[in-house]
Each structure stands twice: as structure tokens, then as C-alpha cells.
Amino acid sequence: MALMVTETASSSFPSSTSSPATGWKYDVFLSFRGEDTRNKFMGHLHDALIQKGIIIFTNDENLERGKPISPKLSKAIEESKFAIVIFSENYASSTWCLDELAKIIACKKDMGMTVLPLFHYIDPSVRKQMGTFAHAFGKHEEKENKERVEKWRDALTQVGNLS
Q1: Separation between Cα atoms, residue 72 and residue 70, nearest integer Å
Q2: This prediction's pTM
Q3: Beta-sheet pairing, 4-6 with 56-58
Q4: Measured between alpha carbons, how far is 143 from 44 in angstroms, rounded to an integer?
Q5: What letter would DSSP give residue 122?
Q6: What proportions of the chain, in percent to the nearest 5, are helix, strand and coil?
Q7: Is position 78 annotated as part of the catalytic site?
Q8: Is the per-residue pLDDT at 102 higher than 50?
Q9: CB of 84 closer than 8 Å to CB of 45
């Protein structure tokens, strides 16, 4: 699948199309584990945001396992005012999702991005990295360098601590 970028000119939500001085190209960047939420919750959320005229960047590519996020995706995160992170059962098993999350946290820190975590059929205490998250991180520690895994753990803890 290709990248899916949804833009609308009739936005009632403040966006870069209505106020170019903000520097934001997208109102919202959606981060999600496709196999868990694409045709369920995320699809409904996406449609509801579009109906409200919100400009969304949703990455909907078929991704190769183990590959880092693309420069295009990294730029889209930087160009978004908000990030909605949809945590689901298998979110932490995806290195792609964890790289996105680390980039989102960097943008929160460096650029003031607002990050909104959503918990899709999982306990909101993901910062504790228990259950499927603990299992996923155990596997990552076997394959990835320690620094990369620690960056992911830190990002997950930071987002999990948001109210």
C-alpha cells in the first residue's frame, strides 16, 4: 500500500493550510500497529478526524521487518502538530512502531509536539512494559543493540506517563 495522506481545505481545526506561520503541514500523525488496529479502531478514528476537517498523516505502507523508518516518514512526524499513538497488544513487537515512537518523543521534546496516547484493549500502564510488551522487548534485546532498545524503552515510558 502507499502512504495515505489525507488533507482537506475546509478544516475547522487550526492547520497549516489556515495559518502557514505555524509551520505544521499536518494536524495529526497517527502511529499504530497495522495488524492490530488498521481495519478496526484506527480506521474509525481516521474517518472521524477526516469528517471534522483535520489534516492527517497516516503511514499505511507495507513495511519490511527490521528496516528503520524512512526519511519521508520522519519528516511527516516533524511536520505534525499532534501525534496520536494507538497502543495495542502487538505495538511493541514492531521495531518500526518503536522507531516512530522514539521520533515522536524527540519532536515532543524539541518542537513542542502534543502527544496523545490511546490504549486499544490493553492496560494503560505500558510504561511498566509488562505482558506482551515485556515479551517483545525481550526479543528486541536479543537482536538489537542495547542503545536502540533503551531509546525505545525510554520513549515508551515517557508516553505511558502522559495523562
Answers
A1: 5
A2: 0.79
A3: antiparallel
A4: 35
A5: S
A6: 45, 15, 35
A7: no
A8: yes
A9: yes
